[in-house]
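Exercise 7.
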Amino acid sequence: MTYGELSTRLEAVAANLHKHERTLEGQALSKATTTFAKALGSYEKKLADFLQGTAPGAREFEDLIKSPQAKKHLTLPALKVAFRQILGQALHEETAAKAKASLVKQVRAEGDFESAVVYLKEFFFRAASPLKVGEDKESLQAEFLRLGGLPDDELEFQLQHRFKTVGALKKLAKANAVNFTATTSKPKLIETIVHYARRAHQNVGT
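Solution. The predicted structure, written as tokens, is:
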């Protein structure tokens, strides 16, 4: 059977159902309808998946999202940034796995695979060769002010991606007169840096 023939048969079935829907009854027909509806649902999904896969950039997006680079670099903070950059929405998932699934689902739903591909390619390139921040006081102060002006999700990502260790965070804090102790935890240090970086950026802007 060709797809055209199947389409014609489905149209005929649909016409009969619409015409006689108020008079259709009986256990046998009801059971057959349930079985047909389940099979049709499965077919509809496979058809939609195929048609979706023919959209520009769809295959490349699927390859990128499953790549080793994605596994390595798409952390929860990175996914929050990607979600906002690609889709213009905030992401509220609490784990990287759920965030990634949500990103994939939303990109597929909107069908703008090309924009997602452009973003991911650039992101993976930058992630592989991140810009290094100078360790001199002037460079760290400039970086502190820059961080203070970033959106929340971008700021979280930058601190975790470019200042991965407590030692690096302490250097940033010390250069900007942010107080901490030897026992200050990494989450607390990040929280304190965010607070004062925001304040410094606001002060410079006023």
